[in-house]
């Protein structure tokens, strides 16, 4: 039994200090050099009698002159993917090593629980550069923008109640040329005697009588009203030809690149002053649009190919948290002022989205932005509360709205309020730096250099 010492008991607030002992099962110099690494993620999975541990280790290197010219960065982020194998879970050996490289740091990197894919959220794409079992095809040509792929066919964004989709149409198209047929769960949008823009089964139900179509130049915008509130991972089921983004400047850049595809001329608008459209990948970091490639993407670890990607646009990264022990960590992105939790999923079909919306923290994006001294952010597995801690001493808990016995009324608007979202503060006795934070459904663990606090969290308070 591990020793347990009670530090303080005060009402519902209980602190415990734990001392743990660990045993080393495997040690090896996996890499050729002795550079320090950070363990980013680790997953244990089994296949019949074989057992595997997938480890993601990260370090940063200074670019060589060749790398600096290729990646346009003085420093590169390296992800070492190391696979350990065993048949008895006692004796382990290195079975495979893989390496990925990116010109920007990442916010999130994880291996799915089958060890097949790596999921990364970063300001730029990561690519495989080596694999101890299979050769890696050089993707330099695609990185330099020489690929014939132009981009998505349309862009879209959403709120809890409304969908907005933007399409690029040929010159001289008028609103009378647009054809739209909608049902509660189907849509058919296109140009009369021309191209179909969006067709199929909608992800959710809409009000077929509440829609709007606007045409400005070559940009066609469709607005749909959701029947019930919620966030959609896609507009039409199985349609991955669009790119979700809330960044207006990014939308403009994408549609500028697509305009020449709807015309016989490279510059359909001679008044624009451009000789030809440009590729956003040609922009330098110091230009007006620095985060042109911020993406959440999934890469197959065996084929080294990109299977899925979605543009993060203006969706600011907030935090990551473990909601299900059988799945990779979820990510929380800022949508307007809210924080939306997205759960990466194991999918087989290319058209299936490998992430889905699972919860929302109302106004949490606004709340986190106000915490200038924050160090760690996380939430409970059931998403009943989110928590932010400062560098020293203070921890802030934000609970989901809950019903109240006696309704309140707003003094200014007169609107009746039936639910209240409580916010609570924990002041630790220790003045040491907080070095770790972990949340469960009923407990919050806070680690300092000297003490590990266990805070009981319950429905009546902290």
UniProtKB/TrEMBL annotation:
> For this UniProt entry, which residues form the secretion signal?
none
Q: Which domain of life is it from?
A: Eukaryota
A single Pfam family it belongs to is: CS
- Please report the name of this protein according to its UniProt entry: NudC domain-containing protein 1
Q: Where in the cell is it found?
A: Cytoplasm; Nucleus
User: What are the record keywords, sorted?
Assistant: Cytoplasm, Nucleus
Q: Which PROSITE patterns match?
A: CS
Organism for this UniProt entry: Tegillarca granosa (Malaysian cockle)
Q: Which residues form the CS domain?
A: 149-236
């Amino acid at each position: 039994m591990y020793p347990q010492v009670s530090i303080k008991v005060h009402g519902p607030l209980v602190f415990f200090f734990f001392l743990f002992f660990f045993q080393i099962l495997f040690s090896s110099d996996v890499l050729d050099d002795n550079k320090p690494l950070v363990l980013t993620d680790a997953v244990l999975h089994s296949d019949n009698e074989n057992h595997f541990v997938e480890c993601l280790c990260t370090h940063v290197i200074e670019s060589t002159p060749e790398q600096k010219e290729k990646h346009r960065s003085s420093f590169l982020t390296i992800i070492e993917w190391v696979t350990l194998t065993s048949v008895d879970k006692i004796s382990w050996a290195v079975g495979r090593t893989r390496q990925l490289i990116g010109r920007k740091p990442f916010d999130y990197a994880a291996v799915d629980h089958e060890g097949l894919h790596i999921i990364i959220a970063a300001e730029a794409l990561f690519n495989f550069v080596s694999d101890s079992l299979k050769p890696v095809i050089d993707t330099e040509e695609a990185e330099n923008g020489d690929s014939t792929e132009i981009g998505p066919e349309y862009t879209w964004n959403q709120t809890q109640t409304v969908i907005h989709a933007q399409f690029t149409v040929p010159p001289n198209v008028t609103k009378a040329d647009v054809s739209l047929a909608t049902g509660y769960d189907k849509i058919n949008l296109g140009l009369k005697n021309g191209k179909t823009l969006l067709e199929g089964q909608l992800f959710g139900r809409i009000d077929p009588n509440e829609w709007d179509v606007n045409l400005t130049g070559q940009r066609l915008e469709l607005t749909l009203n959701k029947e019930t509130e919620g966030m959609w991972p896609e507009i039409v089921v199985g349609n991955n030809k669009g790119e979700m983004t809330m960044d207006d400047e990014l939308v403009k850049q994408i549609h500028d690149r697509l305009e020449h595809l709807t015309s016989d001329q490279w510059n359909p608008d001679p008044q624009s002053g451009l000789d030809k459209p440009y590729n956003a990948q040609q922009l330098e970091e110091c230009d007006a649009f620095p985060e042109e490639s911020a993406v959440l993407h999934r890469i197959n670890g065996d084929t080294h190919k990109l299977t899925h990607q979605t543009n993060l646009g203006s969706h600011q990264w907030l935090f990551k948290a473990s909601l299900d022990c059988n799945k990779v960590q979820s990510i929380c992105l800022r949508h307007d002022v809210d924080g939306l939790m997205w759960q990466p999923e194991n999918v087989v079909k290319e058209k299936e989205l490998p992430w889905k919306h699972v919860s929302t923290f109302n106004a949490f994006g606004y709340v986190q932005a106000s915490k200038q001294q924050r160090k760690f952010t996380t939430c409970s597995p059931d998403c009943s509360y989110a928590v932010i801690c400062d560098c020293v001493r203070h921890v802030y808990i934000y609970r989901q709205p809950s019903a109240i016995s006696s309704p309140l009324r707003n003094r200014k608007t007169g609107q009746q309020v039936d639910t209240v979202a409580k916010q609570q503060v924990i002041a630790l006795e220790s003045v040491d730096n907080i070095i770790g934070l972990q949340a469960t459904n009923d407990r919050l663990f806070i680690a300092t250099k000297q003490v590990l606090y266990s805070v009981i969290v319950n429905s009546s308070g902290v």
